[in-house]
Amino acid sequence: MNIALMSHERKKELMVQFCIAYCGVLAKHTLCATSTTGRLVSEATGLPISLFLSHTHGGRQQIGARIAYNEIDLVLFFSDPQSTDMDDDLKYITRLCDQYNIPFATNVATAEMLIHGLERGDLDWRDIVNPKTTPFTA
Predict the structure, then answer these.
(1) Could you tell me which of 85, 109, 67, 102 has the C-alpha nearest to residue 8?
(2) Are 4 and 76 a contacting pair, CB within 8 Å?
(3) Where are the beta strands (DSSP E) in 41-114?
């Protein structure tokens, strides 16, 4: 499965800790992320992550395009509910995930449910919807 990782500035450390905790599960999948989030997670976990641009330089649009082309199977976007400057990013990705039926977590509780489901095979229906899962090329 192709998994996209994104996080608001104040949630980057939480994303890193989450990915450390679930490194074993995530290692079985193809990961992509916006620049800073992906770099931090990769440095902490050793996981290979395809890096897109930072959110300010178009990273959300790059991930959004992958969602629209059905190249992403799961999105983990840890959002900061106190941040108002990136509301458009969250709305954009939320809308695309809803439109294309992509499982989407905006907090660690939901992300844990999705990761456990991924590990159990509950998201295998995505392979039927998207049988040609190709690795990302940034």
Answers:
(1) 85
(2) yes
(3) 49-51, 74-78, 104-105
| pLDDT tens digits along 83-104 | 776 677 788 999 999 999 999 9
Residue 82's identity, in one-letter code, is Q
Residue 74 tokens read as: 């799961």
Confirm if 69 and 133 have CB atoms less than 8 A apart.
Answer: no
**Residue count (the chain):** 138
The pTM of the whole model exceeds 0.70: yes
- CATH number for the region 2-129 comes to 3.40.50.1380
What are the extents of the domains in the chain? 2-129
Q: Which two tokens stand for residue 84?
A: 């108002």
What are the mean pLDDT values of the chain's consecutive 10-residue runs (138 residues total)?
94 97 97 96 98 89 94 94 76 93 96 96 78 56
CA atoms within 13 A on the CB side of 70: 10
Phi-psi region of 112 (alpha: psi -120 to 50; beta: other; left: phi over 0): alpha
Pairing label, strands 104-105, 30-33? unpaired
Retrieve residue 35's tokens: 């620049």
